[in-house]
């Protein structure tokens, strides 16, 4: 028998414990239907589409973990990928940490993916994984900004806001997910960084570790408002025609 260690694996953690209030009342955002299938299932399939991803951990609402497990069991998912559902926490950061705690020891690369980005192409997922495997400790997919950006002095909602500066958009990127990490680095960030953070890469930045950007994709947009659902349905309709998706 060989004493060689088994190859390190890649897992994706999908925090899906939020309510998604900007989409209005009803089911949590991740469980909203998109072309008749919950967004969460689309997001899980997007991660599992990568042959490099061998495990997907879904972090569910604490009171809805059983429902999410039943949901995964009821939909066709790639047989080569394992799935695990764990209850989430009060915040996104806590939910991601609970997902990390559930990973087996042989996971070396971790993706963290928004359930509300159901249409990310597999080429983007693979590019993130490849960059981590090539030595980057933190990788984010991102796209250039199409609009001019203004830095303003925030005021109460509806009040005019004075413009403070106009950043050069050529040096700015809109960040997407999945974000990829060396597991040890992401664990250290979650053990060290506290306070309000918008994404896991910013936590790694606070450690003083480098974060690199790879090209994202316009179809990896976040479904946040009702109009985003319309756009997502249109993307799926095009895929059915052109790709048989």
UniProtKB/TrEMBL annotation:
Its EC number is 2.7.7.60. One of its GO terms (molecular function) is 2-C-methyl-D-erythritol 4-phosphate cytidylyltransferase activity. It catalyses: 2-C-methyl-D-erythritol 4-phosphate + CTP + H(+) = 4-CDP-2-C-methyl-D-erythritol + diphosphate. The record marks 169, 222 as: Positions MEP for the nucleophilic attack. It comes from the Bacteria. Pathway: Isoprenoid biosynthesis; isopentenyl diphosphate biosynthesis via DXP pathway; isopentenyl diphosphate from 1-deoxy-D-xylulose 5-phosphate: step 2/6. The keyword Nucleotidyltransferase applies. PROSITE patterns: ISPD. Catalyzes the formation of 4-diphosphocytidyl-2-C-methyl-D-erythritol from CTP and 2-C-methyl-D-erythritol 4-phosphate (MEP). Belongs to the IspD/TarI cytidylyltransferase family. IspD subfamily. This is 2-C-methyl-D-erythritol 4-phosphate cytidylyltransferase. It comes from Streptomyces ficellus.
């Amino acid at each position: 028998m060989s004493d060689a260690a088994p190859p390190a694996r890649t897992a994706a953690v999908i925090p899906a414990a939020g309510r998604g209030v900007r989409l209005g009342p009803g089911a949590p955002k991740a469980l909203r239907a998109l072309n008749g299938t919950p967004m969460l299932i689309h997001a899980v399939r997007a991660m599992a589409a990568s042959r490099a991803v061998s495990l997907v951990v879904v972090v569910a609402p604490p009171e809805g973990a059983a429902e999410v497990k039943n949901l995964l069991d009821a939909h066709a998912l790639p047989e080569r990928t394992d799935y695990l559902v764990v209850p989430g926490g009060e915040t996104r950061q806590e939910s991601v940490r609970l997902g990390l705690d559930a990973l087996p020891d042989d996971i070396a690369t971790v993706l963290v993916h928004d359930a509300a980005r159901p249409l990310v192409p597999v080429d983007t997922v693979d590019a993130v994984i490849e960059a981590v495997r090539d030595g980057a400790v933190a990788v984010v997919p991102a796209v250039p900004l199409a609009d001019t950006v203004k830095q303003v002095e925030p005021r109460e909602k509806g009040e005019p806001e004075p413009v403070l500066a106009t950043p050069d958009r050529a040096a700015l990127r809109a960040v997407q997910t999945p974000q990829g990490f060396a597991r040890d680095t992401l664990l250290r960030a979650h053990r060290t960084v506290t306070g309000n953070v918008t994404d896991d890469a910013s936590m790694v930045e606070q450690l003083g570790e480098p974060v690199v950007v790879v090209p994202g994709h316009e179809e990896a947009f976040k479904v946040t408002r009702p109009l985003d659902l319309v756009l997502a349905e249109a993307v799926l309709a095009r895929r059915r025609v052109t790709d048989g998706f």
